[in-house]
Amino acid sequence: MPTLITSFNWGSSLENDNRELTRQLSTAYTDTAIIVNTKISRYVTNVNPPNAVTASQINRNLDIGDVWVNTTANSSWMMTSRTTDLLVTWTIIT
In what order do the strands lie in the sheet with 42-45? Predict the structure, then answer.
């Protein structure tokens, strides 16, 4: 599985227009890349994760901070909250 680069060049236009936004975006991207690259628990499949209103047995085996990767859509999610054993929230990160 390819890894994300841990820094991203947002371009001089954005940096010149809004340095604080550039700093925040860079920090968020770097934090996400580090988690995606180092998180041991990844669920790799060709479908999206169950949404927050769908209780799914598969969620029982995953935890907050785990990453779900949809190889068909080239997208990934991170589990960001757990209401019950089966009911969780997945937040798209790429």
Answer: 42-45, 67-70, 75-82, 88-92
CA distance 33 to 67: 11
Rounded to 5 degrees, what are φ and ψ at 35?
-65, -50
pLDDT tens track for 1-34: 456 666 667 677 776 788 888 888 888 888 777 7
Dist. CA 50–CA 86, nearest whole Å: 10
Q: Is the pTM of this model over 0.85?
A: no
Q: Which residues contact 86 (CB under 8 A, 6 or more apart)?
A: 55, 56, 57, 59, 60
Joined together, the tokens standing for residue 37 give: 């690259």
What is the torsional sign of CA 35, 39, 41, 45?
positive
User: How far apart are the C-alpha atoms of 24 and 40, rounded to whole Å?
Assistant: 26
Amino acid at 7: S
